[in-house]
Amino acid sequence: CLVPRLADAVNAEVAAGTVASIKDADRWLDHTFLAVRLRRNPLAYGCSYDQAQEDPMMGRYRDTLLRQAARKLDEARMCRYDKRSGALAGTDVGRVGSHYYLRHESIREFNETLRQHASDADILVVVCGAHEFEQLKPRNEEMAELDRLRSSEACCPLRSEKLRAIQDEPAGKAATLLQAHISRAPFAAFTLASDATYVAKNAARVCRALFEMALRAHWPSLAERLLALAKAVERRLWWFQHPIRQIADLEPNQNVRRQRFPEDALRQLEAQRLSPDRILNDIDDVAEIG
Fold first, then answer.
1. At CA 183, angle to CA 135 and CA 202, rounded to 5?
2. Cα gap 120→67, rounded to integer Å
3. Is the Cβ–Cβ distance between 58 and 21 less than 8 Å?
């Protein structure tokens, strides 16, 4: 149904430049299937019987829906809405939300929780607090495995009081699954593996959107952290891990991989912060690494 997502649809039209006022939005809405269904069955869309009798073409009811959507967008800073003239003007935040298909509820949440000097764990809380993850409610049969993943620092290296406070909420489950996805942790439950794939696909999109929002807000340190998290989700490699791990992932045989790329040697490289170029130039004997 278009009514619950009407604000997002109007924002997309405003960002595209096809709608600049409530009148433009009404003309656009009149060409949608929603306008046809409103005239055919207005009671199913929340219109009262008296309103339907007084306004059979649903013009006033469409205007009410559009003004409510415009107010929601204005509160989320996705567009500027002038109540007197009905003018709608797009903003950078609205264009980012339209480009990355973010819901206005998520943008409003980001405006309230995102801070310039947030830590990596705080950024993870903001990303997983998006409304795109609100349906990921923890199931009773998944709690044991989620607790196991959280207790392992290899799977979930980011820790904070905020993460512990939301661990029983959909945002907490999304944060756990996202960290496990980046860490390449195996899942015993098929439902968690499926949810982790969903979280990873949407989290990369959310991180890129937040990165652009941080750039437009002139927050360089936050933009750098968000870009690092976006790359980590896409490459399944933490920013503090060595890039040689990506070469190791090309080996399909796990036994051969353990022999050619021992975990102790990889951790030693990460501890010494040795880049691949420095390894080739400064270390003659490979045995020094492990």
1. 35
2. 38
3. no
Whole-number Å distance between alpha carbons of 44 and 184? 47
Taking only the tens place, the pLDDT of each residue in 4-48 is 899 999 999 999 999 999 999 999 999 999 889 988 888 888 888
Closest CA to 72 of 5, 128, 133, 139: 5
Collapsed DSSP state (helix, strand, coil) of residue 217: coil
Strand partners, 81: 88
Gap between the Cα atoms of 170 and 158, Å rounded: 17
Per-residue model confidence as pLDDT tens digits over 66-108: 999 999 999 999 999 999 999 999 999 999 999 999 999 999 9
Residue reference for tokens 């264009």 = 95
Geometric angle at alpha carbon 134, from 128 and 139, rounded to 5°:
100
Over the Cα atoms of the chain, what is R_g?
24
Closest C-alpha to 192, from 208, 179, 205: 179
Cα 14-15-18 angle, rounded to 5 deg: 50
